[in-house]
Amino acid sequence: MISSFFNRRAPKLPAKPTNPAMAVVCDGVEKEFGSGETKTLALRGINAEVNAGQMTLLVGPSGCGKTTLISIIAGLLTPTRGEVTVLGRNLQQLSGTQLVNFRKENIGFVFQQYNLLPSLTAAENAAVPLIIAGEYRHKAVAKAKEMLAAVGLASKTESFGSQLSGGQQQRVAIARALVHSPRLMVCDEPTAALDAQSGQTVMTLLRNVALQSDRAVIVVTHDSRVFSFGDRIIHMNDGQVTHIDETPEAIQSSLQSSHGH
Ligand SMILES: Nc1ncnc2c1ncn2[C@@H]1O[C@H](COP(=O)(O)OP(=O)(O)OP(=O)(O)O)[C@@H](O)[C@H]1O
């Protein structure tokens, strides 16, 4: 009798409250690629947070694991160990289909390559995520035109990619990433292919258009010219977080030391 009482399952505890200010929480995230002699430990226990309402930069030398980490946060890769909570959802607890739907609804992507479809106009390109989600074409294109206006391209909605500069193409890519109002924007080297002026414009747009109090933007960057756009900078080296700049003064000092190198 007594033993059956003790063997009873403990009552289910309420789900751990998640801090609504935390858009992303990484807890002991590790990632291995390959096996045996070719095994690479790309992430070695990442503990890091991304706050809603902030632009967080992820910086560090080539090969330190930035793209791997951002891909895990975006649900494109699964960690070998550890857990990632995005917008209050533990990604490891979602099924494959749930993860695909979660990504479609909540995450916008911007990459170094703009990946615009050459046979579509800027408005049609920016409308693609809505059309994939099942929106009527004319409504999707109308919403896409609003987003293009928000990124300063109202006069280019009918242009094709080949008729736009690199900076303009990246702005179309940003409009496309924002068109379904994602709460997390994930940007991998968004300014790498741009000249200084276009890079500044793109970062200004990401701050002004993508960032809101309940939304977060993560930018992987090598480009110290854009450090000053970040609210926080997570520095990585060799698969680990080395330190985090939390204040404008700390960011300024990272900027100065990167210029010193
Ligand atoms: N698919 C893969 N298979 C095997 N190894 C991989 C794979 N993807 C990444 N790696 C390795 O994992 C490590 C981290 O790579 P990652 O691309 O995340 O670094 P990064 O900081 O984004 O680099 P960069 O700034 O050059 O883009 C590197 O050693 C890389 O070679």
From TrEMBL:
Protein keywords: ATP-binding, Nucleotide-binding, Transport
UniProt GO cellular component terms: membrane protein complex; plasma membrane
Gene3D superfamilies (UniProt xref): P-loop containing nucleotide triphosphate hydrolases
Pfam families: ABC_tran
Any one Gene Ontology molecular-function term assigned to this protein's record: ATP hydrolysis activity
The ABC transporter domain, residue ranges: 24-260
UniProt keyword Aminoacyl-tRNA synthetase present: no
SMART domains xrefs: AAA
Keyword Aminoacyl-tRNA synthetase among UniProt keywords: no
CDD domains found in the cross-reference section: ABC_MJ0796_LolCDE_FtsE (cd03255)
Family to which the UniProt record says this protein belongs: Belongs to the ABC transporter superfamily. Macrolide exporter (TC 3.A.1.122) family.
PANTHER family, A to Z: IMPORT ATP-BINDING PROTEIN (PTHR24220), TRANSPORTER, PUTATIVE-RELATED (PTHR24220:SF659)
Name of the protein in its database record: ABC transporter related protein
Provenance organism: Pirellula staleyi (strain ATCC 27377 / DSM 6068 / ICPB 4128)
